[in-house]
Amino acid sequence: MYCKRNSLLIGVGIVLLLALSSCGGRTGGCAPAKRGVYHWKTTYNPTAWERQWMREHRVDKLYIKLFDVKPGSEESYPDWTMVPAASTTFLQPLPEDMEVVPVVYITVEAIRGLGDDTRRYAELIVGRIDDMMKDNDKEDYGEVQIDCDWTQQTESAYFRLAADIRSLLHARHIALSATVRLHQLRRLEPSAADTGGATPTLPFDRMLLMCYNTGQLQQPNTENSILDYDDVKPYLRQYHSHRLPHTDVAFPVYGWGVEFDSKGNFRRLVNSQQLDAERKQANGNSLREEWGDMQEIVRTQQALPVLDSLHTTILYHLDSTNLSKYSYEDIETIYSR
Amino acid sequence: MKTLKPFILVSLLLCGLRAIACGPWYYTADDNDIYRLLPYGAEGPAVALSPDFSRENLLLWSKQTGCKDTAAIRQAIYKGTLQDWQQLYQQPDNSTTSGWFAANPFVKHLVKRRNRDAIQLLYFSKQYESLRQAKTSPWYYDGRSKSKEDRQIQTLYDSARQWLTHNGKSKYADRYRFLAMKCCWASGDAQSTLALWEQMKHQLKGSIFYAEAEDYAARCLYQTGRRDEAYAFYLQRGDIASLMLFSDMDLAALLELVLRIAPESDVIPVELQRMLFALENNPYALSNKICLTGYEDHRNVLRIARQAAQTTVRSRRAMWAYTAACLLDYEGKPAEALRELEGIDNLPCDDFLKRSIRVLRFHLHSKTDKVDDAFERYALGELRWMDGELQKEWQQLSADERKMMSHLQSVNTGFLFRSCYMYDAMRRIVLPDSVGLSHRLAFNGRQIRALQLSNMVENRLIALADNKVIADVRQGHNDQPYRWNDDPREHPGFQTWGWLQWLDPDTTGANGYYEDNTWNSHDYCNWMFLLADKMDAATLDAYRNRQLHPRDDTDRWLNERGYLDGDYWEDIIGTHYLREGNYAAAVEHLRLVSPTYQQRMNIAFLVDPFSLTDRIPSHNRSTYKLEFAERMSALQQEMMSSDPDRSGLAMLEYAIGMRNSYDQCWYLTTYGKTAIHLLDPSHPSEDDEWAWKAEEVEWSWAPLARLTATNHKYKLHQNAVADSWQQKAFATLRSDEAKAKAYARIGEYATVVKRFTRTATAQHLALVCDEWRSYRL
User: Fold this and answer.
1) pTM, 2 dp
2) ipTM of the complex in this document
3) Which residue is closest to A125 within chain B, CA to CA?
4) Which residue from A77, A80, A135 is facing B141, i.e. has the nearest CB?
5) What letter does residue B607 receive in the DSSP assignment?
6) Less packed terminus of chain B by CB within 10 Å, N or C?
7) Does the pLDDT of residue B133 top 50, yes or no?
8) Domain count of chain A?
């Protein structure tokens, strides 16, 4: 078990509080899903267009990645198993009119090196989130999100760390959410987890189902590695939302180019801003242009089990170059379902 | 500074421990140092180390508190945690602390004497340490607003200042001042820190905290843009590491700065010497690792040096001109380097640099001057001077150093390097292949002088040091190095390999020869030997004659400094004559080699060079070469016989012996392969194959490979000669019996039986060859 009884109670309380806070002021009972967007850049300096975009679409929650957690290197930090990296620099104040959720990306390599001192690192992670949020005048935040591409081998260590983080947050009435990739979904099933068939107790209060990066990026015959419903379908069959924590869901509104050489070997990713220039180059390589396709997003949304009204639909990510490729209606379609 | 200290200590340890990880490494003569502004070791460690502050601090605590137990003080103040001191501060009667801390005599002493000031100070200091640790942690977030750590540091600073206002004359006042200084600096307010420093420095003067506090002030000078003042401070302290660290300067920028603000700083020669050392040493040199920069910017340094040689303070111009000349030589421009030295003699400089300039000038002239009598006279004069200086250096070494050098291994494995500058410089000037003085002399027809100089340089320090190891192997013993290694306590910080640890001699004779386990790796692997190997036997013979009958005072002087062992030289000359096919001359010289010397050569052959299938009696080991030479010489006589059959058979035998002496019995004509084979048995045994790989081999083996390549040239020629003698032999033979014997000698038994059926040889073959296939042998 990853958390103590009292922290479970606190967690349930927090979820109830969240539920209650979402239910007021709207007609027809509970309000529809909340609208969220990720900020995943190392400098927080949204353009006027991006700020306007958030207003137009009535974004409720800004999920902002504060820093990564990487393993300490022999050269730089030999005494540290984990160190923060790529901290976001703030060039603008955080918005006052929406909830801000700090996000920390923890590399799986960092988890691999984690020993018994999960509590110490949990304290450091939570302390740093707190320092950064306070420094940006956001002392009161109700949720922290952690993101990690954990695997079967690293699951145990990651869950221990998450449990320690959650217990620290619960003491301050803050909820912990965690990203879950489709391949991780299987691990959360009762049949897969080492629970003897019982529903696993997960060390977070909410989970964020990432419906992107679903395909094999480096395979030349992949049609769209960002989101392809056919890739998603097998995973969703096993999904039983009622057994899992409160679930949010994230969809891709970005694109890129995937370059292959003449033999079909993956060469590199091309930034969406550089796609036009790269397309013109006839160097014998092929370029697969991918976007989070609206049709695939809608199909995936339809296939998802009915999510409760507390859930947040989050778009990845706040970047005008990418978002401008989607019409107002497209975005509203995603948010409204 | 503090973060650099472990690095410095490691560097110093690396400098002190001259262990060879694997080897032996065969240094080329180019590896010897010649660019020297300062004596060996004078460039010192990378950073001027501050005095042992912690020790002084402990003594001061002892004095201030009256506690004599410094071990207890050390334990309490360095191992006591913030929580320990906090509890003591909150409960000064020591009622809440426990464990070793509560029992610590220093803590008890403070409690007993109710020393509230000291307890508070130590608690504040622990707080400061903890906050600094938090601020230097990778997890610290340095945001726009003051962090909680910053706020706590501010509180600490205020507390220290408040205490000082009431207790400015207390014995702990300097400690509180220093704490305030540290807090102010840690808060990131450089201006305030500087202001505080100005206010406090007169009060701190004379205390152990002055230098430490000044260091914080220097950092603030830098942060507030008063960089030259900060640099001047570091320069004054000789703290180049801090200077480079804080300023992020490369060497050229550093030198330009120092030139501008302190042109006479001692930092300049130290840094220049470090650069020159790094440039001229190979990447394997252990000491390279202590260099702070890669010194890849030497071209920028050259520009600065040339300019400084003209414009800087007069007392330092010679140093800069010398550096510029070294850098030009390094770039392969010796003529330009010589021009750089023009006029340098009129500039003031110390005696060491004067010597270095003279050495460099000789080095450059040796590369550029036309080789004639005048040049030879000049070169000999300079070498005499250098030899005199070498003797002085030898005398100036400590008794321990001299003892150590008398037990070190071969010069070629580098162990005698960097002890006497003149020895290194002589090697660098005289020995290098192609460009070395001896090679230039040899190329210009002065081979004997070239040999004399090489011999002197290779052996001078060995003789001066009375090297026991080399003397030992020359006598066929190998126990000396083990004695040196016997007691490591006697020679801390110095490790040598057991002399033969890396050899795996084949004493079974399975390959047709024995390899001796008293391997002489000096006399057959040095640069003089390599030069000699390139020369013909007559030249070596003439040199031997000059050894025995010096022509003049110069010959005598050089002979006194070379290795003239008769066995050694006569064996080389005899072997060279064998290589050239002059067997009569070979006999003359090989007869002069004592059997005991032959007995202890690196290798001993067992195969009869005229049969290959038979082995010679092992007692003939000491006369192997001589007997071969005598037999070949006798065959030469027989070849001139009027009896065509006798002459022809002698020719055939001669051809067989000649061919075998380059092939299976290569030891008769070859040294290089002996060395290579013994040093690395994994190399191919076919010298044809090996010789052509000479260019591909690792640098350390290249000279030895070249030896084999030289022999390969002879082999090609002499094999053609042997073939022609064999053809001539068959053309000379008249009788069927003799022809049958000749064909049988080369294994063509079928021809003997078919063409010369009636001969006694054929009938004998028919008796011993009872199957058809035997005839095909």
Assistant:
1) 0.57
2) 0.86
3) B139
4) A135
5) B
6) C
7) yes
8) 1
